[in-house]
Amino acid sequence: MKTHNSVSRLELANITKQYPGCLANDNISLTLMPGEIHALLGENGAGKSTLVKTIYGVVAPDKGDIIWDGREVSIKSPSIARDLGIGMVFQHFSLFETLTVSQNIELCLSKAQLNNIGDLADRIKKLSAEYGLNVDPSRYIHSLSIGERQRVEIMRCLVQSVKLLILDEPTSVLTPQEVSGLFDVLRTLSKEGCSILFISHKLHEVTEICHKATILRGGKVVDTCIPNEETPATIAKMMVGELAEQEAGYIKREGTNVIFSVTNLSLPSKHPFGTALKDINLTLKAGEILGIAGVAGNGQDELMAIISGEDARNVKQAISLNNLDIGHLHAGERRKLGMAYVPEERLGRGAVPDMSLTENTLLTHSDGFVKNGLVQWQSIKNYTQTLITKYKVKCHGEFSEAKSLSGGNLQKFIMGREIGQNPKVLICAHPTWGVDVGAALAIHQALLELRDQGAAILLISEDIDELFLLADRMAAVCNGHLSPLVKTEHTNIDQIGQWMAGTFINNTSVCAQEQEAKA
Ligand SMILES: Nc1ncnc2c1ncn2[C@@H]1O[C@H](COP(=O)(O)OP(=O)(O)OP(=O)(O)O)[C@@H](O)[C@H]1O
């Protein structure tokens, strides 16, 4: 057993991991000190998730050493990692939907840890208050939004008093207020001596909170830096090898005719802790992007589910496309009429993990690729290849299983697949979740191109900056209510922030009519 005099919390030496046809990690070395917040940066597919999964015992490296608190260790499973004091919050959460928050957290604790903690629900409530996480131990996971689930994952690590917390893109689905809350938590943990390894594509956040950064490209360490001595542009250059194009602002458009509308839609929640939709009215015009802001869990999931038909309850007259009631049609029939969707959850809802990219393309394009009852496999393979090329999806080929793609690459594929249907109406949640700066730019431009061809786009996002960048009109949801719809140039972050907090609710209908008339 090797021992070291260094006081480092974690040292990785020459970590190498080969997947079939892909060297995901190539001799990676890095050191992390106690209390250090360290960013791991790189384009989609650079090898970040593979490296952190190695530290957490999910992926077995082919080569290399891991030294923990000065001692060489072999981390063969997440339970060994947790025993060492390593906690991880994944990009795709690993919570059981039919269990409560408490039950989920209990599952990853040993008997000894449980005895130490005493009453787990009390401990969760205490930590929740201490760190401002707002996690209710009795809620079922299936009733929680993505943002809330992430807080449960963080709580799961806090309960175990971690010494190293790994966060894989923790802020991608959080509102600005939630991000600053999370950063307060991270700074407190850092002061207490907990090290943090932080994967992010949001470079301004990295410059704000991280003490050090390691940059990966093609599985190798290509640079290291002290983020607060850099700018997002100089870090982006280290990542991609050239100066990334900056997105200064895009031309706003007036939509033409209303092609999609939701009218007086009130709907109780299917889940006891879900959000009921309350008298939702919205119109979507051809050739415009309507952005809906909101803190996770305020009805966005329910709205998306009822619009897409995933929630199969009959709301015939409440939803219409080109003056045709469609609220009673099933999801496939709505797609045939020209609707397309990018759901919030890419693995499981946006794509079937065990199916190849070709099969996943077929799932939402069945019309064009089935003739006389036969699937036209060659055509669909060719088409999938064009999507992979156009959206620069890093994978082995159209036969790759969806689950083998890095998060950002799968997101690019799903966006490309849906945009590629040339829909009349695209309903899209978090279009650039986990996508690197270069690919986010490409997705933004593809959405604007689709809009300019006359499609109507409903963009549901918690990323206010992205909404201001792309949306022609905006609104916010709060507790199942939709705010007035306003032109983006007639509003500002303060007003949208207040609407997200529900200040519009008492006089919604009057306001909405006024604002619609103005818009
Ligand atoms: N199980 C697997 N089988 C085959 N290839 C894989 C597997 N998991 C990851 N890869 C490949 O390894 C490479 C690195 O993936 P990884 O998920 O580590 O990237 P990443 O930097 O985290 O990307 P992102 O920013 O998109 O999350 C990618 O090319 C990916 O397709």
From TrEMBL:
GO CC term, one of those recorded: plasma membrane
Molecular function GO labels: ATP binding; ATP hydrolysis activity
Subcellular location: Cell membrane
Keywords noted in UniProt: ATP-binding, Cell membrane, Membrane, Nucleotide-binding, Repeat, Sugar transport, Translocase, Transport
Gene3D superfamilies listed in its UniProt record: P-loop containing nucleotide triphosphate hydrolases
ABC transporter domain mapped to chain residues: 10-243, 260-504
Membrane topology classification: Peripheral membrane protein
Pfam families given in the database record: ABC_tran
UniProt name for this protein: ABC transporter ATP-binding protein
Organism of this sequence: Marinomonas arctica
